[in-house]
Design a protein that fits this description.
Distance between the termini: 36 Å
Strand content: 15-25%
Structural class: alpha+beta
Number of strands: 4
Number of domains: 1
Strand order of the largest sheet: 1-4
CATH topology: Alpha-Beta Plaits
CATH class: Alpha Beta
Order of helices and strands: EHEEHE
Shape: elongated
Oligomer: single chain
Radius of gyration: 15 Å
Length: about 70
C-alpha cells in the first residue's frame, strides 16, 4: 500500500480526508484510513496538511534505467 497512517499519531481531525483530491482517505472509528489506496495520486497533500505527522506516502518510483533507441 502506498499510504501509511500511524494510528498512534492520528487524531481523526479529518483534514487528510478533506484535502484528498481523490477521496482516498476516510475517517472511521476515530482514525483515518485509506479506503481506496490504489486510487492515490501520490500528490502528498495529506502528508503536507497532517499537522500530527501521522501520514506517509511511498512514491513507489520506478528507478530503473531504460535504453531507448532513436
Amino acid at each position: 500500500m502506498a499510504i501509511t497512517i500511524d494510528a498512534k499519531k492520528c487524531t481523526a481531525c479529518g483534514k487528510c480526508a478533506e484535502i484528498c483530491p481523490e477521496d482516498v482517505l476516510l475517517i472511521e472509528d476515530g482514525k483515518a484510513f485509506a479506503k481506496y489506496p490504489k486510487e492515490c495520486w501520490h500528490c502528498g497533500s495529506c502528508v503536507y496538511d497532517c499537522r500530527f505527522g501521522a501520514i506517509e506516502v511511498d512514491l513507489e518510483l520506478d528507478t530503473s534505467v531504460r535504453f531507448i533507441e532513436f
